[in-house]
Amino acid sequence: MFIENHRASSSVMPSGPMADIAFLLLIFFLVVTAISTDKGIHLTLPPTAITNILINDAGDCLVNNEICRIHHLGDIVELKIMRNDKMIDSIKSSPASSYKVFLAVLDQLKTAAVTKISIADSDK
Question: Residue 67 is inside which H or E element, if any?
Answer without folding.
Answer: strand 66-68
